[in-house]
Amino acid sequence: MKILLLYAALLAAAAFALEWLQYQYFSKAYSVEIYVVLIALAFASLGVWVGHKLTARKPDGPFERNSAALKSLGISGRELEVLEALADGQSNKEIARSLDISPNTVKTHIAKLYAKLQVNGRVQAIEEARPLHLIP
Hints:
By secondary structure, the chain is an all-alpha fold. About 75% of the residues lie in helices and about 0% in strands. Helix 5 crosses helix 6. It starts with a helix and ends in a 7-residue tail after the last helix. The model has no long low-confidence stretch (mean pLDDT about 90).
């Protein structure tokens, strides 16, 4: 029984030595690649963490419209409806159909919204209106 344990210990030591030698060879042969992978993993995890921290989250409570901002900007009720439709991604024709107005009237409302929000496009208008709590 002792001989069997001795052979088992010698075999385990030999296997460990071979694995250690293989690790030594691997770490020397691919040292640059290992460092590049470790740095890439570090930056990827940093990017995920920063993205998680900086991503805007929806508020827990119900949406409350900022009526003071609406009043100070002079945005009418119909312009607000057009702005909400813009935020939903509707085209001018879809907005005209849903609000039962002409497409030219929609264009007029959009032009007035751009002027009041001091923007040049739909995306900018939405990005300006959300932090002011004009639209959800």
